[in-house]
Write a sequence for this structure.
């Protein structure tokens, strides 16, 4: 698995966990806010219920009739009992008993300035309001609950009850819930999140990272890190990846072996083709009757040898042979006898040459020797020996006149030829002079004998 894919999976898992955590915290906060509001409402309703109960008790103490006086000992004692019971409620600061005009008849505690807070309030209807409680320090926001008494006089209620409660101390249920439930729950959630994250890192993220092959790591070392010993899905994936890697490695080795076999086979076939091409090239240059080179070989070799002689300061000698009286011999004894004579001359030329010399059947009964890096005197001696040996062989033949050999010799330095073709023409001209001079001999072409035209055409 690529490293980028592993990173994407890890980010998806981490993002999902963080989203769930955020949603949980948002739900917890919303629930806490709603619980706070419920606590406030329930506290306000509880205070209103307390005031309503006190109103009923005081009205009962006053006799419940129209015009019943409030400032009696029974009413004040009932007010005191109700007030001390109300003070036990969370956040209650004090209570006051008002007459029909809003004057304070009694207050609990006595030191609370209820006359300034509750004095002059209307007792004709129920009301709940907020008010700033004056004091020596910073004023506090208090909730004031007013309730008319169930007794009445002519023209309106006989009085009312007033209760003061501190808003900061009212939602005690909220505080208890926060201390006893929300904070432990948040702590447990944080601990669970941390433990879950560590478990994800150790059980999923780290095993997923083992699937990533580092750039510097070889394949065997990477496979050794795979968690193949696990018995879960990751272990199954790791074992599958190991099998795939082994198969890929085996396939790569088989491919390398096949490539080596193909390369070896191609090398053998190439060598075979080279041999066939060399054989074909050799056959292309070889005269089938004498085994010497043919005229095509002369065309391929003459110019390179001439250029090498001119550039290297050496010499190149060309010797051209022609068999004298070959046609009468061939006509008298047949073509087989003529072929035997040609084959003999080929063996004679091949036997007297050096390794780098070239012997060529130029055409019919004409032969050419290319002798590089040889002195003209040595080339002339070699040519004279070949002429004499050929004459000794043909002297025993029953042919009259007996076939002989004429030769013309020309070299680069002696003839001054400017090209390979001109050098060959100079040797041909020397051969013409040898045949006109009586045959069965040789002539060397000198630069002084060089004429403007070649007499070869006239000789033929």
């Amino acid at each position: 698995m690529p490293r980028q894919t592993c990173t994407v999976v890890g980010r998806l898992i981490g993002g999902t966990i963080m989203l769930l955590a955020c949603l949980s915290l948002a739900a917890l906060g919303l629930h806490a806010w709603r619980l706070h509001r419920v606590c406030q409402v329930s506290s306000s309703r509880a205070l209103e219920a307390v005031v309503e109960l006190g109103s009923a008790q005081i009205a009962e103490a006053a006799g419940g009739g129209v015009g019943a006086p409030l400032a009696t000992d029974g009413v004040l004692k009932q007010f005191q009992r109700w007030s001390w019971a109300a003070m036990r409620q969370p956040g209650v600061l004090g209570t006051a008993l008002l007459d029909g005009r809003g004057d304070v008849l009694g207050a609990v505690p006595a030191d609370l300035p209820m006359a300034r807070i509750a004095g002059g309030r209307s007792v004709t209807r129920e009301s709940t309001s907020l008010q700033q409680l004056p004091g020596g320090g910073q004023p506090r926001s208090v909730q004031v609950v007013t309730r008319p008494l169930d007794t009445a006089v002519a023209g309106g209620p006989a009085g009312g009850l007033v209760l003061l409660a501190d808003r900061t101390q009212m939602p005690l249920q909220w505080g208890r819930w926060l201390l006893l439930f929300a904070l432990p729950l948040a702590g447990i959630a944080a601990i669970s999140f941390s433990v879950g994250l560590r478990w994800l890192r150790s059980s999923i993220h780290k095993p997923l990272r083992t699937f990533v092959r580092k750039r510097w790591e070889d394949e065997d070392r990477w496979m050794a890190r795979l968690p193949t010993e696990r018995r879960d899905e990751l272990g199954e994936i790791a074992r599958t990846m190991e099998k795939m890697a082994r198969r890929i490695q085996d396939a790569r080795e088989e491919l390398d072996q096949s490539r080596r076999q193909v390369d070896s086979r191609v090398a053998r076939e190439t060598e075979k083709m080279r041999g066939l091409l060399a054989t074909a090239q050799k056959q292309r240059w070889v005269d089938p009757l004498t085994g010497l080179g043919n005229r095509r070989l002369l065309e391929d070799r003459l110019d390179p040898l001439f250029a090498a002689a001119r550039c290297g300061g050496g010499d190149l000698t060309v010797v051209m042979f022609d068999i004298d009286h070959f046609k009468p011999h061939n006509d008298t004894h047949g073509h087989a006898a003529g072929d035997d004579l040609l084959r003999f001359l080929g063996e004679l030329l091949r036997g007297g040459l050096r390794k780098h010399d070239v012997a060529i059947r130029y055409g019919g009964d004409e032969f050419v020797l290319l002798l590089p890096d040889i002195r003209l005197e040595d080339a002339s001696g070699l040519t004279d020996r070949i002429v004499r040996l050929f004459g000794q062989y043909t002297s025993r033949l029953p042919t009259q006149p007996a076939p002989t050999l004429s030769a013309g010799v020309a070299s680069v330095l002696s003839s001054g030829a400017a090209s390979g073709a001109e050098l060959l023409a100079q040797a041909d001209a020397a051969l013409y002079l040898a045949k006109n001079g009586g045959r069965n001999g040789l002539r060397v072409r000198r630069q002084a004998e060089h004429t403007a035209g070649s007499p070869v055409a006239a000789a033929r």
